[in-house]
Each structure stands twice: as C-alpha cells, then as structure tokens.
Design brief:
The protein contains ten helices and no strands. About 55% of the residues lie in helices and about 0% in strands. It is elongated and about 60 Å long. Helix 2 packs across helix 4, helix 5 packs antiparallel against helix 6 and helix 6 packs parallel to helix 7. With about 190 residues, the chain is mainly alpha-helical.
Length: about 190
C-alpha cells in the first residue's frame, strides 16, 4: 500500500465498498462520525491516526501486511472446485472459516469464481456466518449469494450421507448457514 494520505484514503474507500460497508456503517463500527470517514477517504492529513488504524483493522488492511492472503482463498476455492477435489474443498472451507474467525473478519472480500452451485451457496453461507460471528458486515457478493434450491450436504460430493446423519447435521448447523439451505455442523468448520 502506498504510504501517503490520499493513497491510503483511496484504498480504504475501495475496500469499504468491496466489503459492503456504507460510510456510516464503517463510522459506527469504529465509533466516529461519517464526516471522519469522508475526510479519511479523501486523504485529509488532519485525520486521527488512531481512528484511521481502527478503520483499517475493520476493513482488514494493515500498513505492513501483504493483502494477498485474503485473495488466496477465492483463488484456492476456484481451483479446488474446478479440479473436482472435494476432499480438499471441504477442508478449505473449514480453514477459511477458522482463519476468518481468528482475523476477526471475513477474509474473502471478493467472490470466488465457482461453477458449482452447491459450493457457491456454501461459501456464501459460511461467509455470512463468519460476518455474524465477528460482527462485521457481510460482503456484497455474499449478500447476493442465492439460497440453494436443494439441500446442500457437502459430504455427499464424497459419499452417501444417511438420513440419520443428515438429521444430526441439521441440528448442529448454525442458523446463518441453514438459512441458505446449506447444512454444515459448526464443529466441522474447525472453529476456534
């Protein structure tokens, strides 16, 4: 990230929009006014450094961090699903959920390019769940994710799942995920 006020402000504005925050929602998340966010995004140098750092944390930006880690999940999902490696895809979903919870935010601000409807719904559902758990906004792409018309049990991509097991999975699926007709036990997301 460039280290001048205008470049930082531009980056904050782009990230805020990509993650679906309004200026007011970001201001509320860091305990300041919308005017502060406007000034920050326009690169006004008189902005409080402490509040600017809070805004950067909420948006998943770090002065020294390389932002490629957040983009890698989307690419990893796309490659894994394209290759039909559903064993790894299930593990990747758990890793994504755990890493996002540890970071305190959704680590996939942009949608993965998935041709598999079940995984598209599942990744959107898990992203909504992470946002709820971390009390951060749901990225626009996950808000637009479509509820699956058929129940999604990702394990069925690997082997048959009995009705008894499906009932157990349904009982232990978080409501944000179940709302998308996706059924994954919270503990299977390797949560922290």
């Amino acid at each position: 990230m460039d280290m001048n006020a205008e470049a930082i402000g531009r980056t904050l504005r782009e990230r805020r929009k990509a993650q679906g925050y309004t200026q007011q929602a970001l201001a509320d998340a860091i305990g300041t006014s919308r005017k502060f966010i406007v000034d920050l995004e326009w690169g006004k140098e008189g902005a409080s450094f402490g509040l600017a750092l809070k805004a950067m944390r909420v948006l998943g930006l770090d002065i020294t961090a390389d932002d490629t880690a957040t983009r890698e999940f989307a690419g990893d999902f796309a490659r894994t699903i394209r290759d039909g490696d559903y064993h790894f895809a299930i593990r990747l979903l758990g890793e994504y959920a755990s890493a996002s919870l540890l970071a305190g935010r959704v680590l996939m601000p942009l949608a993965p390019a998935l041709d598999d409807d079940a995984y598209r719904a599942a990744v959107g559902a898990v992203t909504r769940w992470v946002a709820a758990k971390t009390q951060t906004p749901v990225p626009d792409w996950a808000k637009r994710a479509q509820k699956s018309s058929e129940p999604v049990f990702l394990a069925e991509k690997l082997h048959p799942v009995s009705d008894r097991m499906k009932d157990l999975i349904r009982r232990e699926t978080p409501s944000e995920i179940a709302a998308m007709n996706v059924w994954i036990r919270e503990r299977d997301l390797a949560t922290v």
